[in-house]
Specification:
Strand order of the largest sheet: 2-10-9-6-5-3-4
Largest sheet: 7 strands, mixed
Bound molecules: ligand T4K
CATH class of the largest domain: Alpha Beta
CATH superfamily of the largest domain: Type I PLP-dependent aspartate aminotransferase-like (Major domain)
Number of helices: 13
Number of domains: 2
Radius of gyration: 21 Å
CATH architecture of the largest domain: 3-Layer(aba) Sandwich
Order of helices and strands: HHEHHEHEHEHEHEEEEEHEEHEEEHEHEH
Helix content: 25-40%
Strand content: 15-25%
Amino acid sequence: MYDCERIGRRNTVSKGNNIYVTRPFLPPLEELIPSLDRIWHSRDLTNGGVFHQKFEDALACYLGVPYVSLFANATLALVTALQCLRVSGEVITTPYSFVATAHSLLWNGIEPVFVDIDPKTLALDVSQVEAAIGPRTTAIMPVHVYGRPADVEGIKRVADKYGLKVIYDAAHAFGARYRDQSLTAYGDLSVLSFHATKVFNTFEGGAIVCGDAKTKRRVDFLKNFGFADEVSVVAAGINGKMNEFQAALGLVQLKHINECIAKRASIASRYDEVFSKTKGVAVLEMPEDYLPNFSYYPIFVGKKYPIGRDVLYARLQEAGIFGRRYFYPLISDFPMYRDRPSAAKELLPVAQRVANAVICLPIYPELTDEDQQRVIDVVLEGS
Ligand code: T4K
């Protein structure tokens, strides 16, 4: 069966009036041309060239973290992060995420154990994590959902008590800060995504953030087949490298990121103003000590909203507005996960409720006031 939303995107050019959950920000092409010129002349296309090196340094500096290792995408980075810390057995994770989170465990032969989410953070409910720890548990993989902080202190407390590693899926968290540091500074490792749909994009891309040089070295070996030098392979690595084009684009994108986040902030504040007063619609509260990146704008459609979530979702589509239900269905409901005991619906009531209520509305720097008004009008019409 065809996915109408995807067909809709492919038709953007001819229709011109569709609005999508996101549109990637791209810098003016002329800003990239000198770098492309250099790549073309140098013929250094990948395997850790000059742009790769510069972008790694610039990113670590922008995020204010000790070390960054660039990747072709976040999924490969997640798979590699687990390898880096030699995680095995069982890992506690959330059902409320993009499938890549749990898929990275299966690709490592690790058993995901799902735990319900907290209704405020929408990340792992720490009070339920301890009960899920068993003799084979070696790590916790929480997600900073929509770039909002998971309970980082609570997770650290439990992880320290049981000697578990913590790998954050921070795919949404670029530029978000919590208690005066990058969200990616928490945990043993954090993984960012620079996919086209993210706050910060390099077309595709990702990174592992880590705190010490030794770990960074191991990550770097692992993303390059395990090569330590021309004749030594020290681990069964993968090809996870970011190429020079992606890195060159990333360097240019960095110059625009603050402005992009500021534009998102003003769109979010207009939505907040309207939807905080809309009956049957809930919006997320801002955590304390948190600097958001406004990567997504989820609304939660409750019982008091007369037409319900799915009718609203369909009406938005009829109006050419393609929001997305991130994250519905839950990961734990997909066929490769649903037979696990921890995937049982009755064990995950908060995640089920949230997944059945959410619609992420369009938010991106170039969303016009008129287009935002079209989105608002459809939501208000159903209320
Ligand atoms: N962990 C988490 C928590 C994640 O959310 C993700 C990815 C990952 C890990 C893995 O990261 P990567 O390996 O991808 O780096 C999208 C993205 O493909 C996916 O990266 C993202 N999460 C997820 C939340 O969203 P879809 O299936 O919704 O994408 P798609 O192609 O339907 O795009 C959504 C809309 O974006 C389109 O309607 C229009 C717009 N769009 C999209 C693309 C790709 C564009 O305007 N231009 C584009 O090039 O999954």
